[in-house]
Design goal:
Blueprint lengths: L1 E4 L6 H10 L4 E4 L2 H6 L2 E4 L5 H10 L2 H10 L4 E4 L1 H5 L3 E2 L13 E5 L10 E6 L17 E6 L1 E5 L5 E6 L3 E8 L2 E4 L7 H17 L2
Parallel strand pairs: 1-2, 1-3, 3-4, 4-12, 5-6
Antiparallel strand pairs: 6-9, 7-8, 10-11, 11-12
């Protein structure tokens, strides 16, 4: 079973729908016992960094997330869920992220003709081997919706990058922690393969 963390963020239902289409058992929850007993945990999200951290605090989810990661449970952050795993974001100055991984979230720089937020399909480059991308060719296209992007402190954890006005760290993997800036649940067959790969990881690590 995969637990999707419920903290009133957008996009939770579409992640659930994609997982159900793959035949996976899913629960949307903020219950500590259900999260900590799940085979895998997903932190999705669309919204503002500061608001999201406030919700995670108010629902008592910070320590549950950290315990889940420390227990070695496969953990996947999606979009805002990726950003929350890092130290801070320019979107919400002074707000501390979960800081499970080292790095900062920066605003995509303005440039002539560049639309922000970045909404649409971009292709991926794979600087390091990533378990989420098994069976997928380089330059696969995925769907993004964001105004802020990751600059990871350690480039060795970066498994996918893309270019949109700047060099974007689009996916990272470190130990049992995985994260994508893009939306696999909205990325057609490529995205479903990424979710299948995450499900496969949860089965191996049970």
């Amino acid at each position: 079973m995969i637990a999707i963390i419920d903290y009133d963020a957008g996009n939770i239902k579409s992640v659930e729908k994609a997982l159900l289409s793959l035949g996976e058992e899913v629960v949307i929850t903020r219950d500590a016992e259900k999260i900590l007993s799940a085979d895998g945990v997903i932190l999705p999200g669309v919204g503002a960094f500061g608001d999201a951290m406030e919700k995670l605090h108010s629902y008592g989810l910070i320590e549950i997330i950290k315990k889940c990661v420390n227990n070695g449970t496969p953990f996947l952050g999606i979009c805002l869920g990726l950003q929350l795993l890092f130290e801070s974001s320019e979107e919400s100055p002074g707000v501390e992220g979960l800081h499970i991984l080292d790095g900062r979230i920066l605003r995509i720089p303005d440039a002539p003709g560049l639309k922000i937020p970045h909404i649409g399909w971009n292709d991926l480059s794979f600087p390091n081997v990533g378990k989420l991308f098994q069976g997928l060719p380089e330059n696969s296209y995925v769907y993004f919706v964001h105004s802020y992007y990751l600059q990871a402190a350690d480039e060795k954890i970066v498994t996918a990058t893309t270019e949109y006005g700047t060099h974007i760290h689009a996916s990272v993997e470190k130990g049992n922690v995985y994260a994508c800036q893009f939306h696999p649940e909205k990325s057609s067959d490529v995205g479903l393969q990424i979710l299948k790969n995450f499900i496969a990881i949860t089965k191996k690590d049970v």
